[in-house]
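Dear support,

I submitted the protein below through the web form. The confirmation email said the job was done, but the results page showed an empty box. After a refresh the structure appeared. I'm attaching both so you can tell me whether what I see now is the final result or a partial one.
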Amino acid sequence: MTYARPTFRNPDLPLNKIGRARKEYEGAISTLCAGCGHDSISGAIIQACYEMAIEPHRLAKLSGIGCSSKTPTYFLGQSHGFNSVHGRMPSVATGAAMANRDLIYLGVSGDGDTASIGMGQFVHAIRRNLNILYIVMNNGCYGLTKGQDSATADAGSINKSGAENQFQGIDLCGLGLELGATFVARSFSGDKQQLIPLIKAGLTHPGFALIDVVSPCVTFNNNAGSTKSYDYTREHMEATAAIDLVPYREEILHQQDKGTIKYIPLHDESIIAVNKLAADWDPLDKSSAMRKLAQARNEHEILTGLIYVDTQSKDLHTLLNTSDTPLNQLSQTVLMPSAEILGKINKLYQ
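What the results page shows now:
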């Protein structure tokens, strides 16, 4: 059995602005369980990058260990990629991003990879406002080791073995807000209409963009007692808004009545268009977002959509005032100070 896709391409396939077909953004054939929510997220990433006309070689995809961390094999096969050890993807991403600021960074992780062994690294990537889209494929269990509850499993949820989880689950969006994440969103693997524009917005955001995606594990955590199942998620979803991203190259057109839509400008002049659904929520107000998240938790609802965005975000390169030239392109003549400059430096410490 082969997991490589056929090389034949229909010559009549539609092309994006840089002349690439959607198939050029695909990867190998998935070996995940049939119906896995992770494959739907991979499909959304493929569609988002195709629509944004990203050159595949300009994107670096990074992951840790877990079912979710296998997925970079299944999308953007022509991109750079690094599969790190369990929970250590953020430090690898930080090193890569500091060395080459010209690439677009996409991190893929899971609830175990992020909320357990990788929690310390996840926290500091947020604190430093690393310029990365960080997608958590959150199924509330450890699918590779037969379905044990993960740290995001809700208290009282029932796993496939019939055991009730006794521990409070970690809310990654709430944690991200508390730690200072400058873009926070949640979505559902079964809602590509919402997920694709969120991915596009996250890729253009200057700083740490967190998207927590509820992605049911069809093998170990799609039973009636699971709060991460397809049925439970569909029945308890509350969307903050209908979201779209308008690239800065395109003319902005809309036909809604005045006051029904909110435009949020990004650093590259792209626009997040928010058609507000939740009356007591403002995506630019962190306090409002935290209150709305808390309310959703108390009512056992799953709040999805764009939760918070900081339009004044300054990423790690801006905070550290690094060179506009990627560090991996600086020559020895630039990096080595002259004798005169070295003498001035030494005098500062005499």
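Response: this is the final, complete result; the empty box was a page-load delay. The chain is about 30% helix and 20% strand.
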